[in-house]
Design goal:
The structure is a single chain. This protein is of the alpha/beta class. It has one domain (6-196): NagB/RpiA/CoA transferase-like (Rossmann fold, 3-Layer(aba) Sandwich). Helix content is 26%, strand content 20%. The protein has helices at 11-23, 27-45, 66-74, 148-159, and strands at residues 52-54, 78-83, 92-95, 103-106, 112-115, 127-130, 134-135, 141-142, 163-167, 188-191, 194-196. The strands form three sheets. Strands 3-2-1-6-9-10-11 form a seven-stranded mixed β-sheet. Helix 2 (27-45) runs parallel beside helix 3 (66-74). The protein is globular, with a radius of gyration of 16 Å. 37% of the residues are buried. ATP binds at residues 11-15, 141-149. Its EC number is 6.3.3.2. One of its GO terms (molecular function) is 5-formyltetrahydrofolate cyclo-ligase activity. Keywords: ATP-binding, Ligase, Magnesium, Metal-binding, Nucleotide-binding.
Length: 201
């Protein structure tokens, strides 16, 4: 029986494939990749002084964001983190001041995600650094199925100009991710191998 290619798989199968590739990376490769992806992300972002940049607290096997946070702060950005309010709702963003200890917050499913305390100011990001399970060269993002970032990006893009930067290991790139009407494309994806700039249709 012939094997299916990436482009012939459904979202669930693609997610399994991309996450398996991610899980196969050893700790040394992960650390090196996180530093490289952070450098690539900063090159793509350019000047970020006084901009609000939302990053994410990695869960599971997601790429580490500490190297990126360090560079963002050095460049004068104001760093924020997303907060899950409830299923079916867009994300809220709170400012993460240097030195502020993160607290466990409700995440999707069984996850608890580190987030700024409730006393931290809510902000509207200028740049959204987005986690993902997989992505393709057209900027299609394969998430984890809850739709938080699609809803949030749709809302933010109607209100203001915002840049959405996927952030992942290069091994998570797929030949094609099926796109549905509600899916929000990324403006670019920063990986350890460089920046993926979505191809035009």
């Amino acid at each position: 029986m012939p094997q299916l290619t990436d482009a012939q798989l459904d979202k669930a199968s693609l997610r399994t494939l991309a996450l398996a590739r991610r899980a196969a990376l050893d700790p040394a490769a992960r650390a090196e990749a996180a530093e490289a992806a952070a450098a690539n992300a900063m090159e793509w972002l350019g000047g970020v002084a006084d901009e609000v940049v939302s990053v994410f607290s990695p869960i599971g096997g997601e790429i580490a964001t500490d190297p990126l946070v360090r560079r963002l702060r050095e460049a004068g950005a104001r760093v924020a983190l997303p907060i899950v309010l409830e299923a079916g709702k867009p994300l809220l963003f709170r400012l993460w001041e240097p030195g502020t200890e993160l607290e466990p917050s409700l995440g999707p499913g069984r996850f608890s995600i580190p987030a700024p305390p409730e006393s931290a100011p809510a902000v509207s990001p200028d740049v959204l650094v987005v986690p993902l399970a997989g992505f393709d060269a057209r900027g299609n993002r394969l998430g984890y199925g809850a739709g938080f970032y699609d809803r949030t990006l749709s809302l933010l893009r109607r209100a203001k100009r915002i840049e959405a930067l996927g952030y992942a290991f290069a091994v998570q790139q797929l030949a094609a991710v099926p796109a549905e009407p509600h899916d929000e494309r990324l403006d670019a994806i920063a990986t350890d191998a460089g920046i993926v700039r979505p191809a035009e249709d």
